[in-house]
Write a structure and sequence with these properties.
Strand content: 25-35%
Distance between the termini: 35 Å
Largest sheet: 6 strands, mixed
CATH architecture of the largest domain: 3-Layer(aba) Sandwich
Helix content: 10-25%
Structural class: alpha/beta
CATH topology of the largest domain: Molybdenum Cofactor Biosythetic Enzyme, Chain A
Radius of gyration: 31 Å
Low-confidence stretches: none
Number of domains: 4
CATH superfamily of the largest domain: MoaB/Mog-like domain
Number of helices: 7
Mean pLDDT: 94
Bound molecules: adenosine monophosphate, magnesium ion
CATH class of the largest domain: Alpha Beta
């Protein structure tokens, strides 16, 4: 076992990585590809939204003073002089005692100052379409949405740094934007290294199937990045060199798994040391699982060397790669938020200088977040991680009793 002296504290390792990652250049991106990306400039409104005064409900545009005293007991009869549908552009005159039938979203005639909802009217007994009884007094402005009541022309609607969510995309569409300046969505290349790895199909003696690449590709996509599948590369110096060089040209970040442990007979280290001009840093981070980790740049492209053990690879992705790649997008919050959850079982551990990340099932019970440990915890047990939705952050110590509150990272948010 390595001494805790040679271990890098987690926050130091994370800080090291984040400091070396710089946001990608802004691009003009079509609106349909912008969700989840970060605005690179303020967006000013070129139009009023809504663009004209319109009705918020189906009903009758009236002069409010014509409805004074209206009630069920005292219905007031108005003459219906026109009908305007949504999309209509007409502006009929409205004399005292008259009304215009109007549909939600249609422009309110200039002469009207209120809209009576259909629910507050009754049709005449003979269903005469040219008359309506109002049974509730209308106030000036009822059911009217003024031009610019949501967004005014010249207003900064979305400042630089906004993470575009579906509502923000809707706002940009409502202002007529087709493209907006954003930090590009990072293209993340995923490579598996190791001569023992095969994909689906026949499997030879001593071989194992590559599970890291498919899992990491999905983790990349789930994080809102673009994934590039760069395949399996066997332990051959020239092939590894070619693969990393190509990845650095093709992608904005590279994730590779395997070959970063201390005792490894591995060419990956030698090749990366050469390609990064000595910039690669090999760390033993004070965490369990996912202790070995490497980070550096190849031709300016950040490269994350994750451990080969499948659980470790995913935990390492969460702790190092995901936050750093979010920084490539200039995301304002690279790290996921930590929530507090109540342990449902005792956590047995001993003091070893490491923060442990236990796979757990978190659920909210009567408003309390509860974390259950009933999933296997060994770092090769990927099937157990598949039934977990959170990592409990267990600080160094001699164990924690059920009922203790500890921070958790949710994996599925
Ligand atoms: P390494 O980090 O290369 O020493 O690998 C540590 C362990 O993880 C070994 O048991 C490897 O066979 C396994 N491993 C490495 N890469 C993968 C992979 N892509 N998929 C599944 N297991 C892997
Ligand atoms: Mg290996």
């Amino acid at each position: 076992m390595s001494s805790t002296k040679s271990l890098t504290p987690l926050d130091v390792a994370q800080d090291f990585v984040l400091k070396r990652v710089k946001p990608l250049k802004p691009i003009a991106c079509p609106l349909s590809e912008c969700c989840g990306l970060v605005l690179a400039a303020d967006i000013e409104s070129r139009e009023d939204v809504p663009p004209f005064r319109n009705t918020a409900s189906d009903g009758f545009a009236v002069r409010a003073k014509d409805t004074v005293g209206a009630s069920k007991e005292n219905p007031i009869l108005l003459k219906v002089v026109a009908t305007i549908a949504a999309g209509g552009a007409e502006d009929p005159e409205l004399e005292s005692g008259s009304a215009v039938r109007i549909m939600t979203g249609a422009p309110v005639p200039t002469d009207a100052d209120s809209v009576v909802m259909v629910e507050d009217t009754i049709a005449p007994v003979d269903d005469d379409e040219n008359a309506i009884y109002v049974i509730k007094e209308a106030a000036v402005g009822d059911s009217i949405r003024d031009a610019g009541s949501d967004i005014q022309i010249g207003q900064t609607v979305l400042p630089a740094g906004t993470v575009l969510n579906p509502a923000a995309i809707g706002v940009l569409a409502s202002l007529g934007y087709k493209k907006v300046p954003v930090f590009a969505r990072p293209k993340v290349g995923v490579i598996s290294t190791g001569s023992e790895l095969v994909d689906a199909g026949d499997i030879g003696k001593g071989m194992i199937r590559d599970s890291n690449r498919p899992a990491l590709i999905e983790a990349v996509k789930q994080s809102g990045f673009d994934a590039v599948d760069l395949g399996i590369v066997v332990d051959d110096a020239q092939l590894l060199e070619n693969a990393f060089k190509e990845a650095a040209i093709l992608c904005d970040a590279i994730i590779t798994s395997g070959g970063v442990s201390v005792g490894d007979y591995d060419l990956t280290k030698q090749v990366l040391a050469k390609l990064s001009n000595g910039d690669m840093k090999w760390m033993q981070v004070a965490i369990k699982p996912a202790k070995p980790f490497a980070f550096g740049t190849v031709s300016g492209t950040p490269l994350f060397g994750l451990p080969g053990n499948p659980v470790s690879a995913l935990v390492s992705f969460e702790l190092f790669a995901r936050p750093a790649i979010r920084k490539l997008m200039n995301h304002p919050t690279p790290f996921k938020r930590l929530l507090n959850a109540t342990l449902q079982e005792d956590v047995v551990r001993r003091r070893d200088g490491k923060v442990h990340f236990l796979r757990a099932l978190c659920q909210s019970v009567n408003g309390e977040l509860q974390a259950s440990l009933k999933v296997g915890q060994m770092s090769h047990m990927l099937s157990r991680m598949a039934s977990a939705n959170a990592l409990i952050v267990v600080p160094d110590g001699d164990g924690y009793e059920a009922g203790t509150k500890l921070p958790v990272i949710l994996l599925d948010e």
